[in-house]
Design goal:
Alpha-D-Glucose-1,6-Bisphosphate, Chain A, domain 4
Length: 138
């Protein structure tokens, strides 16, 4: 099991950033590997990603939802992954977004990529792109 933690400060209040993250069907706008996300109902979604070496698809479930503060999820099918994202207001009209991700690398290449920090860099790039996205739409 691999564990990745990341955080980023975003201009604006946490409620605005939360709304951007909550809109999962727009994830392809700021997560490079996500090709499509379809909301199936209020708790479940279907994900399709391009990992470079292959395409992957899974169904996920929201496990925790605290409006404006926290979203947790886990995969139900396909790639094993789970995580939580938190939103905290800071005193200077910015917010802190923290991400905790757990996943199971599949096969030799994903394990090797994880070992060499590829996933860490992807999460960092994703958070940077999310900041740009959230600050633009807010």
């Amino acid at each position: 099991m691999a564990i990745i933690d990341g955080s980023i400060e975003i201009e604006g209040r946490s409620e605005s950033a939360f709304k951007c993250w909550e809109d999962i069907e727009r994830f392809p706008l700021f997560i490079d590997i996500v090709e499509e996300v379809k909301r199936l109902d209020s708790r479940r979604s279907q994900w399709r990603v391009n990992l470079g070496i292959r395409h992957e698809q899974w169904e996920a479930e929201t496990t925790e939802f605290i409006p404006g503060k926290r979203i947790g999820w886990k995969s139900l099918t396909g790639s094993v992954n789970a995580g939580v994202v938190n939103f905290h207001d800071l005193p200077d009209e910015t917010c802190l977004v923290t991400l905790h991700l757990v996943f199971e690398p599949k096969g030799f290449l994903e394990s090797l990529g994880d070992e060499f920090g590829v996933v860490n860099r992807l999460v960092g790039r994703t958070l940077d792109h999310f900041r740009e996205y959230a600050e633009t739409v807010a």
